[in-house]
Write a structure and sequence with these properties.
- The protein is an alpha+beta fold.
- It has two domains: 62 residues; 198 residues, no CATH class.
- Helix content is 28%, strand content 26%.
- It has a five-stranded antiparallel sheet, with helices on one face. It has a three-stranded mixed sheet with strand order 10-12-13. Strands 1-2 form a two-stranded antiparallel ribbon.
- Strand 6 and strand 7 form a beta hairpin.
- Helix 1 packs antiparallel against helix 2.
Length: 276
């Protein structure tokens, strides 16, 4: 049976970091000034030793930060290399709601023919969802309700944004920044027995954010926007109910002028639970 290299990546990274830490410690001790019993110690040498110790501790702390995602299996870090304090968690849940996080960054592609006389090949993107929530109503005719969130870094938008900042091309209504914003691509999904919900995106009329369309901002969200969207989705689905499961055939996401996001559902329905 073949081993999936993706599954082994966390263990490989941990091994690399541990070896690097031990290697650094072994070499670093040789750079300190050694004092012999009875010999006077110069203040400058003692100070240099303490300075070296401080620098080494700070370097080791940075190395250990690389292990943060594997110390917290209940968190998903979309961008731990550059925003190590940004992570998403599962919501509080009750009833039959259950959830799992998926931390990988896999993308894969498939081709689809349009069916025209001279068919063009359409290449589409597909990826696993990082937040996966599922409920079952139970009873004689059980129904499945699912919700998912895909959150990935958007490094192309990061680079574009940085280049525009360096060139002085800055929209007057962008979030306050110094050219160092990180951006994320967010995709949501929700279904009832494989009948998928429609997601509608809109934004404040005074925002040019996203340039070409009302829905473009879903591909270039800042961290605070991501958190606003995920929190809003959790609240909309009423995940802590012990009496029903909520399904929303239509979900509207509106980007406000202050970059908060309203998540609403005009036609949501509550499905009674029949649990043992």
């Amino acid at each position: 049976m073949q081993t999936n290299p993706i599954q082994n990546r966390p263990l490989t990274l941990i091994a690399i970091v541990v070896v690097a830490v031990l290697w650094q410690l072994a070499g670093w001790t040789q750079t300190l000034t050694t004092f012999q019993d009875g010999e006077p110690a110069r203040a400058s040498e003692v100070t240099d030793n303490f300075a070296a110790l401080k620098a080494k501790i700070e370097a080791l702390e940075q190395d250990l930060e690389a292990l943060a995602p594997f110390q917290h299996p209940d968190r998903y870090y979309p961008n731990w290399r550059f925003e190590p304090d940004f992570y998403l968690t599962l919501p509080a849940m009750a009833g039959s709601w259950a959830g799992f996080l998926y931390e990988d960054e896999d993308y894969w592609y498939w081709t689809n023919l349009t069916g025209l006389q001279d068919p063009a090949i359409v290449v589409s993107e597909k990826a696993r969802y990082n937040i996966n929530l599922m409920a079952n109503t139970g009873g004689e005719n059980p129904e499945r309700i699912w919700a998912g969130a895909f959150v990935r870094r958007a490094p192309d938008i990061d680079a574009q944004h940085k280049a525009e900042h360096l060139a002085g091309v800055v929209s007057p209504n962008e979030p306050s920044h110094t050219g160092d914003l990180m951006f994320y691509h967010v995709r949501l999904s929700h279904h009832r027995n494989q009948g998928f919900a429609t997601f509608n995106y809109s934004k404040d009329a005074d925002l040019s954010y996203g340039d070409s369309g009302d829905s473009d901002w879903q591909y270039a969200m800042t961290r605070s926007m991501v958190e606003s969207v995920i929190t809003g989705l959790y609240a909309l689905l009423d995940l802590t109910s012990t009496t029903h499961v909520k399904h929303c055939p239509t979900i509207n996401l509106h980007l406000n002028l202050n970059y908060s996001v309203n998540v609403t559902g005009p036609d949501c329905a509550s499905i009674p639970l029949d649990l043992p």
